[in-house]
Design a protein that fits this description.
heterodimer, A: 1106 residues, mainly beta, Phage tail protein beta-alpha-beta fold, Immunoglobulin-like, five-stranded mixed β-sheet, 14 helices, 45% strand, B: mainly alpha, Serine Threonine Protein Phosphatase 5, Tetratricopeptide repeat, 19 helices, 45% helix, globular
Amino acid sequence: QTKLLNLKIERTSIESVLKEIENQSEFFFLYNTQQIDVGKKVDIDATDKTIEDVLETVLKETGIHYLIKDRQIVLYNGDVNSLIDAIEKSEIIGQQQNSVTGTVKDNSGQPLPGVTVVVKGTTQGTVTDVEGKYSISRIPEGATLLFSFVGMKSQEIAVGNQTKIDVVMQADAIGIEEVVAVGYGTMKRSDLTGAVTSVKGEQLESTPANTFVQTLQGRAAGVDIKSASNAPGGGIRIRIRGSNSINASSEPLYVIDGFPIDNNDVTPDGAGNNALPQSPLSTLSPNEIASVEILKDASATAIYGSRGANGVVLITTKRGQVGKSKIDFDYSVNVATVRKKLELCNAEELATLSNEWAANNDMDPIYDGINKPLPEELGEGTDWQDAIFRTALTHRYNLSISGGTENTKYLVSGDYLDQDGIIIESNFKRAGLRFNLDQKVSDKIKIGINANANHTVNDAVPSDGSGYQNDSPLWNALTTTPVIPIKDEEGNYVHNHDEAFKILENPVSIAKTRTDITYTNRMLGSAFADFEIINGLVFKANFGADLINSKRNVYIPNIAETQALPNVGVASIGSVQSTNWLAEYTLTYKKEFGTAHRLTAMAGYTAQSTKIENVFSRTDDFSTNKFEYNNLGAGSDPRPSTSHATEAGLLSYIGRVSYTYLDKYILTGTIRRDGSSKFGTDNKWGIFPSLGLAWRMSEENFLKGVEILSDLKLRSSYGVTGNQDIGSYSSLALYNTARPIIGGGPVIGFYPNRIPNPDLKWEKTTQFNIGADAVFWDGKFNFSAEYYIKTTNDLLLNVTIPNQSGYSSSVQNIGEVENKGLEFSLGFNNSFGQIGWNSSFNISFNRNKVISLPEGTERLLFNIGRGEAAYGRSIVIPGEPLGSFYGYHFMGIWQTEEEITEAGNTVGGKNRPGLPRYEDLNGDGFRDNDDDRKIVGDPNPDFIYGFSNEFTYKNFKLLIFINGSYGNEIANLNRIGLLTQPQKHNVLKIYYDQRWTGPGTGNTIEAPLHNAGEWKNFSDRDVEDGSYLRVKTISLSYNLPQNLFGLNWIRNAQIYVAGENLLTLTNYTGFDPEVDLYSSSNVQMGVDNGAYPSSKSVRIGVKLGF
Amino acid sequence: CESILDEDPPSSISLSSFYQTESDAIAGLYGAYSLVYNVSAGTAINYGELNADNLAISPIVSDAFSWDEFTYNSDVTGGLWSSCFSGINRSNEVILYTERIDINDGTKADIIAEAKALRAFYYFQLVRAMGGVPLYEEPTVGFDNIYAPRASEDEIYNVITRDLSNAVTELEETSSAGRINAYIASALLARVYLYRGDFQNALTYAQKVIDSGVYDLFDDYAAIFKPENDNGIEHIWQLQYLSGETNNTVPGNFGPRGIAGDYKNSFWANTVVGGGVAPSAEFVAESPQSYRKSATVADHYEHIDGVTGTITMEQVYGGAFPYYICKYDDREAELQSGENFTIIRYADILLMAAEALNEIEPSNNQKYTWINMIRERARNGVETDLPNLSGLSQDDFRTAVLEERRFELAFEGQRAWDLKRRGLFLETMRAQGKTVEDYMLLFPVPDAQIKLNPNLEQNTGWE
């Protein structure tokens, strides 16, 4: 040690001087504070002095002696014993030399608050402050510091003799250190044994959608999402690893910040034919979400027991972080137009077909040049699609303020959405306020609250279904004859209403004159308290409520012109109130035993209860349209008001143990015991266990040497979960109401609706999962694969029983469905010079099959479609996937009468030249019955995929997101209705182009010829390939340089432009291949029937952070 | 906290909270009555008329041919089977659980007797259509007894006659419209005995109704079928309807449909369509000229809006067969008719009494009094029409009374049954050119039910 010191200090404590020496040199001091007084103030002015010189000066007159040994300087009070004492205790009383300070930053140079810094192997540690600074003292010899932060790669740094350690944290591309929500707790990804997919909030925000669930589309393997309706606020269909059930719901359980919500439809009733119900999830803004975890296998879902069988979607909303207060503001405007129009006949073509129909049916021409113009005089006519579609604007605003200290973290945010639908007059608004707070009351106690209040206004137009009793702007725009104008010369709406025409209300009139508004208020709130009883043992109590109030106002004015409704003015008010409360108590114990064993154990008890109440009131016959729905008393024909209430309760005991040995071998066992009110009295309680094992092979010595392999984990799990999503009271015999007329008026009679089944219980899903996660080149490339097989038995089925019992069916636990599949995810993340490329791809294959049905039930048939074309069928039959289409086999067009008789039919009715020829399956001629129907399609996809690419260059970011589905078929029921009755309504252009006009003229489309029930013949001609590849999002964003305007109070500023659905490759001829009329059914899938069409759009937005 | 697992539906009643009071028992009874709608009216027309010689499918309709042409399959009775057994099970509930209610014994006995009579009515619908069926005298409470085999026809009829004769003695003489009273039970029992060929008992119970003095014929035949005369002096038991609340579809199916009620301004307002069924050509040809005929079938009607004037059925049917059944012509509310459907009326009782008396005591001239009461009203003062009958042989009277029933009770759901019980069904239908097999005298047991319950045996010929 030859270094010379320079010190010039006045009136400073000896302690400070020693510290300064330590800073300047490698020396460190050891002394016993009980013997040595270092508080004395001294002066020193030393230039290029040796340590001895400095110490002589400082310590003179203090009576303090020193001894220099190597880099250690021991101070003692002259007594040799005290010297020995000092040396002996120097390990523990070693002063500042054993402390480390430093700053933690991210790779962009921003300080990172909230980073955990611990001395590895101990509980000793701290958290970085607002400026990313930390200080940690009394560090033992040879210690290693561990820096960890959510979303960042953890770092271990040996302290050695450093006193200042600055760290730059790298984003965790591998994700193994990531902490993920697992239900009633969190877990490091590396410790997971189950199949869990995480999606970050930023990814969700990049794709605009009605509900956050739609933004998950294509993001997670094994998750199949379709829009049931593209109407603003419209419903969606989501399946995780296929449909498990026939009658019960196959929708996953949604858990928002630990609160399992009841996602049943709470849209109140409305009179007449109305829009499809709005998705309950549409009340939540995608902007509020920090991350979504999708739990797929039994190891992950069994903790949710009787609600886990369909998978679980855990939603974690954004919370305040330690650091300076942040203000974030987003705004975007979206411009949408219909993605595609259908090609229909124009006025001249339709009139030609009408005349041809008349001629074929031995009638005089309809467009004869006398009563009506000749076809060639009509030209194009009205384009009704143009009359109802519009360019629609959507504005979104989001403002959030968040921040926090070590003790208090908060977030307050507000968002507002104003979305116009692409069909005129449809609009959806949502305003939301959120507040959450985390408060450390003491070292032992933490409390927090979440409050989320939303208000939505869904101003809907009727959609979905077709024709008779299902008039809607869309369907009526497709079918209304182009011969008539929108309005007559006096400004009145013209309806498709001539003698030769079917009555169809003017689609513009439907949209403009009918009212259907649903107001929904939702308050989802919870409060929790954590109490650390002893080190590692935390008790948590969580209470919450999800309150939904919804009111729907409907008015159909007395100027409406429909076939189905009494056109006298119909007003209704419907209301639903849903109250869902939760109480939850958990005890969590986390402990590391030595360095080899890590244990997390959790046990808990929860109670949850839901009550839903409905009221509906309707009055008909209004002399004036003035009141709309606001004065039901003013109508002369009040209908009986109805009301209804259901309750359900769930009590549960839960437990989970996760044990990790040497970071290599991981075991997770979960168990849940659920008691549900919905089950029969003899089967109230069910037990749902699961076991998961994982082996981190990359931690084994034999793989340690493989440089490219950063992580490799094999996982497997097995377990049982349940589905209790059946209606309340299904096990009871209830009395339904009948209203026979007795003594001149209606009386109320009660009759039993079923045989009680005290044995009724949950549907049971047993799932085996095996998976592997691999990370290469430090996260530049990662790969996951899963295989699963799920069997669901004890299906809740309406089993047909002999009618002689007085009942036709009974709800029983019979039948089995299987889903098995493969899922692959690939990730790539690298930089090429200044260009960063981050890519992820996932693909999943699910195979669904019905294994068995109740004895005596050969098959179950279901009708698909609504309204006029509602004659499609689907079938559930063992050996085939759920929802298979069931119909006739189209064999072309009957060309001649001989052909008909040769095939064993009599000429007439449906079997005439020019009409479709369907296969006669049972050899008795073609008859309109099930014997001539067979399976004609499968709506289940062979595989679905998502492919996301993100390129960054300097401040630019380009996102290209592709998703798709392959091998699924769609029952295009629109097509049935649009290929019939050209004398009554409009038809597709291909009808005109390809129709049969005589033997040998066509074999695809029938002649316009009266044919009773022509729209009822659902055949494979109406089943189309629904495969598609869609460039769902292309988005380009630019982060403005911070110093651009010299405004350093702006934290970040981004502008972006995004295109949605700009390119879709598909052979599907309907509006959109991503369609499903039935959002909740398991047996009616892939049905397109007047669905609100999808749009393509361009969005421009700005994000500002202060 | 376990209490949240107990289910007590706030807006429904379960068995544990039902059958506590008299009004519960009455509500249960009304529940059982509500299925009479399913087995009368349109169902009665299908089984009793479309399946016989008087009624045919109208030229404008393409479905329901099977009833007219005997081409139905072995599931055709599915609806009747399930409705009757639901009615039987509901009646059985009332019978069993009312016994346990703590109320006045007389009231209790009345309610039980009424439920048993209703059960008998349902069993009668089944047994005459399909022969013996499974016999249930207690409600279904579990899954144990739902696979019972068929009982014999005699066993079923014994239960029917036992319960109806009990009702005759137990029930009050009057009841609110639509509910069974002692005379309704008597009238039904007379009908049952007539089917059984027990003419003595048929006469006895018909006579009870006649002797009561409670019932009489309307003076005007057409008045029987006017909605404003519902529950009139001639109507012994009518299925009750109320326009807009519970609509009778029979008038709309028989008559031309026109403007009515809520359909003002609607598509239907400007539409003229014929009914779904029409009188057969044979009926129109063979029906003797009389006021009654003119009140039964017609070839034109007045357009209801008074603008168009007369519309002929020839126009409506585009030149096809030009008659419709004007009997239930509820022109004010055709698609929402509130006109009651008559299950049994006094004229039927008179004809039953005459028929039975002719079998027991052919020389007793009382039978002419009864049948001539019917004919006199039918001719409505036109003496040349339907002259009074007298001096017929027993055989000729037997034929005469059946003919009288054919035209008096036309389209009221009796014809096929009358032909069947008289053994004339097959020859009559074959004479009309219909292909009817011998085994079709009985309807099939629904095939679907046989699949569900292997203990059921199919009727001969339908296997």
